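Newbie here. two chains, one complex. Structure please?
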Amino acid sequence: MVWNRKIAYVDLSTKKVVQKDIPKTMRQLYLGGRGIDMYLLYNHVKPKIDPLSPENVLFIGVGLVGGIPCLGASRCDIAAKSPLTGAVGDSNVGGFFGPELRFAGFDHLVITGKSKKPAYIWVQDGEIEVKDATHLWGKDTMEAQTAIRHDLGDEDVKSLVIGAAGENMVRFANVRTGLKNSAGRTGMGCVMGSKNLKAVAARGTMDLEFAKPERLLDYCKEMNDMIIGTRWAKTQSRWGTMIIFSNTNTTGLIRTKNFQLNRLEDGQDLEPENIDRYSIGTSGCYGCIVHCRHRYVLEEGPYAPIFAEGPEYTSLGAFGTMVNCKKMETVLVANHLVNKYGIDTLETGGLIAWAMELYEKGIINDKMTGGLKLDWGNEEAVFELIRQIATREGFGNVLANGFRDAIAKIGNNSGYYAIQVKGMSNLHSDERPTPSFALGIATSTRGSDHLRSRPAVDMYGLPEEVLQELYEGPVSSDYTSYDGKSRMVWWQELLYAVTDSIGTCKFQTVFCAVHAPKWNEFSKLIQYATGMKFSKTQLMQIGERIYTLERMFNLREGFTRKDDSLPERYFKEPTPVGFPIAKGKTIDREKFEAMLDEYYALHGWNKNGVPTKKTLAELGLNKEPTHMI
Amino acid sequence: MQKILFIDPEKCTGCRICETVCSLHHEKVCNPARARVHIAKWETSGLYIPVVCLHCETPICEEVCPVRAIKRDEKTGAVVIDYDLCVGCRLCVLYCPFAGAGIDIVTGKISKCDLCDGDPVCVRFCDPRALQYVKSSRANMMKMRKAAEKFSELMQKLLIP
């Protein structure tokens, strides 16, 4: 049966592998994917360890319905204590690796210790082996995947790999699979590098059995029709997430020149339509009919030839608006570089934009940058700095440990200009006009991040009755308002926690479209796939359990209410440009704190953000760590 | 008029839903390794090619089958196996130039596309329409339109230097 996939404990120090069953109780409490990974994280990672030491543990998990033919059920969750933030490290990746791991017989891998020599883990049809990876060390993320396939003599092997950045333990190195898919955030590639683990490869041909296969098949079709029936998914199919740029750049919701402007003047070359000059078609992840990834070719210019996938909206900001580069080609080249090296596009762009503002303000100079002219729009400097960060050379090495370390090294009030929360860079969206988004990045358990909660529905100005029905409480339909926005963030946090745990794609639930599959649909999918029954209330409680456990991990590591905040500039500097709705906005500190109070109360946490005894008892978390698996 | 399975690799996005639903429909499990359709991928160059039985007019598998177990279903146009006759010699697997017949890794039997009795489940799920089940007249016209599109692009390049 589908919930019968095993968990394997791989000790890289001794090369010993132990396989175990995952008790059904674990499924009932945490489903799978991110949920079970978070349980493992809280239970297996000892408090206050050094995230780069062999004591840190890396978790790889596939969602409960991963591998079914709908809603992009391809997602794989990678977790560890984050070397970037010291908080929950957790990153989710699509593509084809997750399902392949399931077909190979495993849902969860717990990777401990450290290999003496470069190694990779090979998972095939119920068996796991730790293999030598000396010959793979030094290869970029694409070369490494090709070499592994060659090594194993099987074109259908799927791998999670790290590139130069992971090998060099850049704190925001990511884990990559395929041409584009990345477990981008919180530095999971850095943890792999610290363990001398170059890759995890999988190939599986084992049946995935279901409780009600016929009904599941029909329901998958229904789900696919439901999602592609939304305008958001249709638009995504054509343009990918880049489409967001059209709206945010016009309105003035996009960080430009780090944080100096909220709209890129003359930025028309970054409009999504211009990808057509380079695109040869779109790609879908496993089980996804939305196919939001563009395959693109760059035939001319100094960096050609490039064949790659992307870019996401994130890269348009990271290597476009934030560094004041106005050409699509710059973004395409930079996107390819970060992917090749295996570093998080968002963190890299955020740090470079920050460095450029420091350079402009004279806080850093040519001597510190090694002669690199960090002027706005200098694409050559951007490309060079990407390389330097990944290889830890020159000024790149100053940035390679992330914001906290770089602020400490540079000093001189540089921290004021850093747009980060809990040591992790904000997305290039400007949240000052949107309190709901602002609260979400402040409370995210993995450091500043939009994918823990972003209530994008807020942008549509939907009738309040619609919002009331969705969120089961009063929510203002004005996105600049603070009213009811804590409820929105809380609700989305629970929904995304469950989505990540069943292993479907966030873009195929209530992200931008209200009428997308959510609790009741998830409940049916789980029932037809596994036979387990969950009501909407039960699923929401599972989301709460997962989110509260993440909170407990962070509290144990010393995080407090004051870490659930925003960069000072959000409160002090009004947005300078944009439509009237977006111009002249700051976050009101008092209203923000009030939102935070409401938000804690909705989670059942006290004023300090600590879960109350009653909440812990209700969620069955009062005895954690319980070491069930 | 007989319908045919029409493949347009340019539209394929490589999501492998066809593989998954094929195994779910026929074998009641998800397992792309047991599907009768497969997306061959060259990831580094972005090529995705659906590979499935083409239900040839003069099927080589039928010709090489020593026990005459392969015949055409007149209703659906599918080239199908009569499992009462099939001895599993795998000559069809060996000789088919399009990899239209394979071996089921669990049962050991020959496994090939049977067009799901005239309602191919892969087609039903293929949103980008890389797989279609259409009348042959329609298939012809689709090819012609596509050729015309390419021709028109060429003409425009010649006319507008």
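Moderator note: Chain B has one domain: 3-133. Chain B has five helices and nine strands. Thread marked as resolved.
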